[in-house]
Amino acid sequence: MATQARRNFIKKISCAGVGTLIPGLGSSGYNFSWSQKNDKRVGIVGMDTSHSPYLVRGINTSNSGYRVTAAYTSVSNDLPASHSRVGQFSKQIKSMGVEITDSLGELLNKVDYVLLCTVDGRLHKEQAEIILKAGKRVFIDKPMAISLVEVIEIFEFAQKLNIPIFSSSAVRFMKTAQEVRDGAIGNVTGAQVYAPIIYEPTHPSMYWYGIHGAELLYTVMGNGCEKVKCFTSEKHHFIIGDWGHGRIGTYNGLKNGMQKYGGQVFGDKGVSYLGDFENLSPLTDKILEFFETGEVPVDPSETIELFAFLDAAQKSEKTGTWVSLKEVWGQ
C-alpha cells in the first residue's frame, strides 16, 4: 500500500498541541444573537448528523468569539442515516440563526473556519480538499475517510498547503481518558475498553462506529501497536492489540445496541476506571482551541495508525490470524 514517499511522510508527520480542557459548554439559556461584532465566522458542512446541531449550539452559546454563521449539506440517498435525518437537523440549525447556503463554494466565501460533519465518510476526502484549497482550517468529524489511503492523502494534502487539520471521535476527550494520558496512573501497561459497534454497508465494517472504541483505546495506549487479532460473535466484536513489551490493549465492540463507552486502564502506579461518556462538549472546546491556535490536539501519526489498526482488525476477522500493522502498511 505504501510507497517510499508515503512511508517517509508517515514517519515524519507530527504536530504538537495537546492542551488543557476548557470548561464544558452549558446546555441551557441559549442566546443565538451575535455576542460580538468581530466574531470569527465558522461554517458547518453536513447537516445530516446529530453532531451538527450540537456543535452549532455549543459554539454559538459560548463566549469564545467564534460563531457558526453558515451551513451547507450534501445528502446521500443510499445512506439512511443521511437522507432520513437531514430535514430535522437542517431545521434545528436554521432555527439557531445559521444561514443555509446552496453550495460548498458559497459557504467557503462566507466563513473563516470549517466543521466538516458530513455523515457519509465517502465524501470527506473530496470535500476536505475543496475546503483546504480555499485556505480554511478544518475539523473533520468521524470517520475521517473510508480507507487508510484516503486518510493519509488528506493529511498529505493539508501538509502540502501548510494548513492544520484534525479528526477525532468525541470519546477521545473523556476526562478520565485524558487524565490517564497525562500520567495519572503512570506508564500504561494495558487497557480494556468497550464501546458500541454498529455496521453500515456503505462503509468498511469497523469505520462507521468502530472508530469510537479505537479512539478510546489509542487515547490511553498511544501509538506503537504491532499486531492485531479479531474475534466476533453474535454479541461482541472483540479486538486484541499487541503493543509489544507485554503491553496489551483490547476493544470489545458491543453489538446489543447498548450505547455505553468505558473500560479500565492499567498503569505501573494504579488502575483507572474510565466511566461513562457524557457529551460532545470537550470535543467542542478542543475544536475552538484548534481554530484559535492552529495547534492540533491529536497527532496525525496517531490518527493514521488508528486506521491501520482498524484495517488490521478487519483483515484478521476474515483470516482468523494475527495481522501485523506492517502488513497493512505494505512493508
From TrEMBL:
SUPFAM superfamilies hit by this protein: Glyceraldehyde-3-phosphate dehydrogenase-like, C-terminal domain, NAD(P)-binding Rossmann-fold domains
Identification of the protein by name: Gfo/Idh/MocA family oxidoreductase
Record's signal peptide: none
Domain Gfo/Idh/MocA-like oxidoreductase N-terminal: 41-162
Pfam families reported for this sequence: GFO_IDH_MocA (PF01408)
